Structure formats: structure tokens, C-alpha cells
TrEMBL record:
<keyword id="KW-0548">Nucleotidyltransferase</keyword>
<feature type="binding site">
    <location>
        <position position="142"/>
    </location>
    <ligand>
        <name>phosphoenolpyruvate</name>
    </ligand>
</feature>
<protein>
    <recommendedName>
        <fullName>Phosphoenolpyruvate guanylyltransferase</fullName>
        <ecNumber>2.7.7.105</ecNumber>
    </recommendedName>
</protein>
<comment type="similarity">
    <text>Belongs to the CofC family.</text>
</comment>
<comment type="pathway">
    <text>Cofactor biosynthesis; coenzyme F420 biosynthesis.</text>
</comment>
<dbReference type="InterPro" id="IPR002835">
    <property type="entry name" value="CofC"/>
</dbReference>
<dbReference type="GO" id="GO:0005525">
    <property type="term" value="F:GTP binding"/>
</dbReference>
<dbReference type="GO" id="GO:0052645">
    <property type="term" value="P:F420-0 metabolic process"/>
</dbReference>
<dbReference type="InterPro" id="IPR029044">
    <property type="entry name" value="Nucleotide-diphossugar_trans"/>
</dbReference>
<dbReference type="GO" id="GO:0043814">
    <property type="term" value="F:phospholactate guanylyltransferase activity"/>
</dbReference>
<feature type="binding site">
    <location>
        <position position="177"/>
    </location>
    <ligand>
        <name>phosphoenolpyruvate</name>
    </ligand>
</feature>
<feature type="binding site">
    <location>
        <position position="174"/>
    </location>
    <ligand>
        <name>phosphoenolpyruvate</name>
    </ligand>
</feature>
<keyword id="KW-0808">Transferase</keyword>
<keyword id="KW-0547">Nucleotide-binding</keyword>
<keyword id="KW-0342">GTP-binding</keyword>
<comment type="function">
    <text>Guanylyltransferase that catalyzes the activation of phosphoenolpyruvate (PEP) as enolpyruvoyl-2-diphospho-5'-guanosine, via the condensation of PEP with GTP. It is involved in the biosynthesis of coenzyme F420, a hydride carrier cofactor.</text>
</comment>
<dbReference type="Pfam" id="PF01983">
    <property type="entry name" value="CofC"/>
</dbReference>
Length: 236
């Protein structure tokens, strides 16, 4: 499993209205921790690799027993943030495949309401020998992208077999990525996975995730920042 996280100082700018910079960075880390904790419970997830330029994210990843791949240098000057994100994921994919991984999933880092059961269920629905994805709850973005290799066949040399079996991740995250993944041949997975489909970008997403039920790190940070109390006040 691959997870990309950009520099915390630049993260979640769309939450800037509700959270000061230091709080926002802490919240991004908390959502990341809850996402990794839920993901690592899925029995199909053999390892988690985080690609990031941020030292604090790398430390948090290591504390959660995830591997860390430094941000590739060629992403500097790679144009838009999304181009950098996709280069970072492709770099991490090459890294884990060089170390023996076959089936890949690129998971968003901001899924605080993710449950192990729904991720496990989604992985079980992925076709072999193909790319597939779980769209976000609005069917605009992508919560998770999967690339499963073709099953092994006999009669080829080991290297030829590896080449012919490989299904590239070909990540196309960013604006309208559900459409981009569909248009590039990835299959949209069907299933009721509300936490998996809810990546948090805006205050409205955060409120929705909170109502579904967020993980303990996210919850305690939101309580500490007084955000949950303000939610109650807004409702009364
Ligand atoms: N390693 C890495 N991860 C990235 C990069 N750009 C984005 N990401 C990650 O990809 C996911 C989606 O990123 P964005 O939607 O662009 O940014 P965001 O921080 O979620 O939100 P905004 O600042 O509000 O756009 C987040 O988990 C980011 O941390 C990058 O250049 N490198
Ligand atoms: C990059 C993506 O996520 P976000 O919604 O965080 O921009 C995406 O969905 O492809």
C-alpha cells in the first residue's frame, strides 16, 4: 500500500478558514495516523509505504511501522501539485515493486472515517490483471487506486513473466481524477464504503466524516481545538 503526503505546511489549505496553521498541520497528521491505523488492519495489506518530503510525516509513519520513501527529487519543478503527487506515487510504486510487491493500492491520506472492514471489502472486490479504483463520495475524486498484476503463467522466463504480468499503477490523481481513472481504463468499484469514500478536503467534508465517526486521533484533536464544541453550538 502506498500513501503520499505533501509538506504539512502546505497541506489542507481548504481548511484554513476553520484551523490556524499549527492546528491544521496537527489535524492532517492525526487524519493520516487514523488512516494508516485503519488500513494496516486489513489482512490483504502486507506493507504500507509513505512517500513524503515532510520529516514529521516520516516520523509518524515510522512510529506506525510504515516504510518511508523520500520524495523523489525529479518532482521539484514538475509543474502543478498534482503532477508532483502522481510522480511521487509512481516513484513509490516502482520502489515497492523492485522489492517484490505485486499488487498495489494507492490510498488517500485523509480518510479519518475509514474502517478496516470497508477497505478489506473493497480490496476483495478488485479484479486481478487490471487497474480499479474507489471514487470519492461525489464521484469526482479518487479515494483509492488499485493495480493488480496478471496471475502467473507457465512457460516464460522469470523476467519475461514478471514483465508480462505487470499492471502499472499509472496514477492520475488530482482534479476530476475519477473521470481520469475511468477514461484510462481503470474499473470503478461498486460498494457501500462511506468512510473510504470520504476524503476530507473542506470543513463540510470534515463535518460529514465526524458524523460518520472519525478515528481516535482525529477525534481527540478536534475536541482539543474546540471544533466539536463549535459544531454543537452551530446546531443549537
Ligand atoms: N508526496 C506528495 N504528496 C502529495 C503531493 N501533493 C499532494 N499530495 C498528497 O495528495 C493528497 C491530495 O492532495 P491535494 O488535494 O493536492 O492537497 P490537500 O493538502 O489534500 O488539500 P489542499 O491544500 O486544500 O488542496 C494529500 O494527501 C496530499 O498530502 C506532493 O507533491 N507530494
Ligand atoms: C487528489 C485528489 O484528492 P483531493 O480531493 O484531496 O484533491 C483526488 O481525488 O484525485
Amino acid at each position: 500500500m502506498l500513501i503520499a503526503v505533501k509538506s504539512l505546511a502546505n497541506a489542507k489549505t481548504r481548511l484554513a478558514r476553520d484551523f490556524a496553521s499549527a492546528e491544521r498541520q496537527q489535524l492532517v497528521l492525526a487524519m493520516f495516523r487514523d488512516t494508516v491505523s485503519a488500513a494496516r488492519g486489513a489482512e490483504q495489506v502486507a506493507s504500507i509505504t509513505v512517500v513524503t518530503p515532510d520529516d514529521a510525516v516520516a516520523v509518524a509513519a515510522e512510529e506506525l511501522d510504515a516504510g518511508v520513501v523520500p520524495e523523489p527529487v525529479d518532482t521539484v519543478g514538475a509543474g502543478s501539485g498534482n503532477a508532483r503527487l502522481n510522480l511521487a506515487l509512481a516513484h513509490a510504486a516502482a520502489h515497492v515493486r523492485a522489492n517484490g510487491a505485486t499488487d498495489l493500492v494507492a490510498l488517500q491520506a485523509d480518510l479519518p472515517a475509514l474502517t478496516t472492514a470497508e477497505l478489506s471489502d473493497a480490496i476483495a472486490a478488485t479484479p486481478a490483471g487490471a487497474r480499479s479504483f474507489v471514487a470519492d463520495h461525489q464521484f469526482v475524486g479518487t479515494a483509492a487506486l488499485f493495480a493488480r498484476n496478471h496471475p502467473a503463467h507457465n512457460g516464460l522466463s522469470r523476467s519475461a513473466a514478471m514483465r508480462s504480468r505487470t499492471v502499472d499503477l499509472a496514477p492520475a490523481f488530482g482534479h476530476d481524477s475519477a473521470r481520469k481513472h475511468l477514461d484510462s481504463g481503470a474499473r470503478a468499484l461498486i460498494g457501500e464504503w462511506p468512510g473510504l469514500r470520504l476524503d476530507v478536503d473542506t470543513p463540510d467534508d470534515l463535518e460529514l466524516a465526524y458524523r460518520i465517526g472519525v478515528g481516535p486521533q482525529t477525534r481527540s484533536n478536534l475536541e482539543m481545538f474546540g471544533w466539536t464544541a463549535s459544531l454543537e453550538n452551530d446546531r443549537s
